[in-house]
Amino acid sequence: MELFQSMWTSMAFDNLYWGNFVMWAIAFIFIYLAIKKGFEPLLLLPIAFGILLVNLPSDIMTPNQGLLWRFYHYGEEWAIIPPLIFLGIGAMTDFGPVIANPKTLLLGAGAQGGVYVTFFGALALGFNIDQAAVIGIIGGADGPTTIFLASKLAPEMMGICAVAAYSYMALVPVILPPVMKLLTTEEQRKIRMKSLRKVSKLEKIFFPIITVIIIILIVPDAAALMGMFCFGNLMRESGVVERLSLTAQNELMNIVTIFLGISVGATMPAEVFLTTKVIGVFALGMVAFACAAACGVGLAHLLNLFLKEKINPLIGAAGVSAVPMAARVVHKVGSEADKKNYLLMHAMGPNVAGVIGTAVAAGMFLSVLK
Amino acid sequence: MANVESPMAGKVWKILVKVGDAIAEDDEVIILEALKMENPVFAPEDGVVKEILVKEGQQVEEGDILVSLE
Q: What is the ipTM of this complex?
């Protein structure tokens, strides 16, 4: 009998409570969504598996001991992995559309309005100021930035905010079109934009250098993200270190994504995840996305008051980062109004500018709240 | 006679016409791929395909002539 009891204890069933089983169910749902529905599988699958592991009885997240704790501690708490992902994104990003049409930088900044609307919404709902900042940044639709800011301000919110950000990114094609259609007329959606001018190699090389200098001088706390982002972009555009650029985009990105995904998942044991706050985060995350798109479209309307050459206001919605999905959605909505309207490349401008915008917004939160 | 020009930068994904085909305005002529999206290119007016100036898989820029009509 004693033997049976000690075996039972070592099997550790009694360390579980109902919440853990709920988390198993959530992990299974995420695994299903990743595999069957293709919802951001590169992140959702590792996150889901991390959730499952941390809700099994093990020491996997025990400080100074567990494997995933070490991933988490050195990768996220030390804020190493998100900047490395930015290095890869920088190496993947073609700033041509932004350089050809610098007005799109404004649109990328405008969509960050959603971040601040949500920030104040979260404060009103009773989140503390650090948590509200992290929830707000979900509206930037940028996973690594969300994780980066959470690690600095509110580590307890990291898992849930990352999941909210990635879930809503997968839902960009569902969330954005109604907002965009509500805020534009059929005629405005039909506006065709004149072709983008050719951008020289020299301009593309100077862009990351000038951008990094200006942004870090203004928002020093964005240095980690923007430094890596611009470095990655310079590697790409320089044309002389293709091996490094490709490694940053592919192998390095994939490696850190594995460590990031599984350890972010492991920040969600049942006792942390299953609180009423989670509902608030998901509700606010949705508001954040919708507001960001609305702010971008609104700013495009505003610019059109002053521009002779009108821009199609739809491209403002691409200011929520989610590259390149948001740009694709803009293109689709535009071509529904006029099948010969090709907005894709025009929407890439605000889209990549949105990545910079979100990193700057995160840096601003850090400089005020840190 | 008008030509079919590329409305955007992208890669020629599928060519839907042959030399000698009669096509009508707004027919799909070529499908371009950009950012993993398929984008149909439409004929600007009625005509007969005179020459196809691109190959499938070829990268094209905005304004490049894809197909000439007569």
A: 0.90
